[in-house]
Design brief:
- By secondary structure, the chain is mainly alpha-helical.
- Helices cover 50% and strands 0% of the residues.
- The chain is built from 5 helices and no strands.
- It has helices spanning 2-26, 41-44, 55-58, 71-74, 78-93.
- The protein is elongated, with a radius of gyration of 28 Å.
């Protein structure tokens, strides 16, 4: 009789643990990561004019396929991002940067 009660209790505990572990995986995991503060490259270095004739500088703001990186990745301000986009497009027009490539870097 005592043995049956102990088996029932352990079985009941195992079922409770199983339910808890299932619920644990249904909720999103809380992973604390250090979020780096993004800053505007141009504001930090006090750059007022983005030169379109300098492709080595402009390559920093392109990905491997030659696409312009968005603000959410680079952290630049909207005003500077617009200047950067115009400079990259001008540089492409005069032939210093490719429009599309397989491996830019």
């Amino acid at each position: 009789m005592i043995l049956e009660e102990e088996i029932n209790q352990t079985h009941h505990k195992k079922q409770q643990k199983g339910v808890d572990s299932d619920l644990r995986y249904l909720s999103p995991l809380k992973i604390e990561t250090k979020i780096e503060k993004k800053y505007c490259y141009f504001k930090k270095r006090n750059i007022k004019y983005i030169d379109y004739k300098d492709p080595t500088f402009l390559i920093k703001f392109l990905n491997a396929q030659g696409k312009i990186l968005p603000r959410r990745i680079t952290g630049t301000l909207q005003k500077n991002q617009n200047k950067l986009n115009a400079a990259i497009k001008r540089c492409r027009q005069i032939g210093l940067l490719p429009f599309v490539t397989d491996d830019l870097r």
